[in-house]
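hey can u run this one w/ fe (ii) ion bound, need the structure tokens asap thx
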Amino acid sequence: MKSLFKRLFGLTPIEPAHEEQAVQPQREEDEAPAMQPKPVPAEPDTADTPEPFTARTLRYDVHNHILPGVDDGAADLDRACDCIELLIENGYEGAILTPHIYAHHFDNDENDLRERFDRFINDLAGRFDPFKFDLAAEYMMDGPFLDKLYDSPEQLLTFGPRDARSNRGDMLLIEFVPAILPANMDDLLQRCAELSLRPVLAHVERYDFAVGQAGHERVRQWRALGALVQVNIGALVSQYGRTVEQAARDLWLNDLIDLFGTDMHRTDRAASALPEAFALLTDEPSHFGPKAQHSLFAQKNSSQPTGHRMRSSAQPEAEPELDEDFDWPAGPT
Ligand SMILES: [Fe+2]
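ok here u go:
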């Protein structure tokens, strides 16, 4: 299974950086790089050489709280627009909106979120065209979520390439209580496999049970069973503090990241963290995170050319132009 993931996602392990260097997000040319580059082959195989990293490499944000007025993210339309402008300034071309669904904290209902998403697109009135939008959710791994996963999975707000059997996006964003090792992870992974869903573990860098050698081994096992690891891109540059930064970089250096997301709630800290993170990633030659993110969608969609595409606020009913190298993920069902 591990080799299969390697092949599908094109992941390339890199050597760990020196601890002292790893906390330097900006470097002068004559300083030792924080992330040690892999040796450049004399005649690189162009088929396996990733394109230079830019913000646009990510193309879309897969985790944020931009949908206004539904959780602890953007409070209103203006704040949501501020977030979108920041994404566009950093080169993103679209965003999958992932409001919290968390019992007793954010008791959001999927159908209500779908209606709010439709109103949001209408309210934007094409303002950010051709930036694209889609709706999913960030589910807390709690009892109501598991009940839904077993009893009414058709309700779930998913994203990503459309699965042929379920006819819906095959990725499901799930968060956990940071300090508690989830006892029912095996059940989660098994049920997701039954449903042809790939569980995307949200901001893994903040979980106590995912740090250190033992934590990484857990993460490896979960990935081998179908889970995908999402890391907040700002965590790489201390948006959430030094401890989380080190955890994010350790996951990165150990080849354990499948997807980056902004998890943007507002623009304050993200405004400086995003450019800083992209500068760091641009200097890092492995690109395995973004390359994996690209491959996740492109590989699956290549066999499903009729899948739905993300929506533009300007042309909500129209199909955007096809990208020869990349397809937008399927919309929620
Ligand atoms: Fe989040």
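The longest strand covers residues 168-175. anyway lmk if its weird
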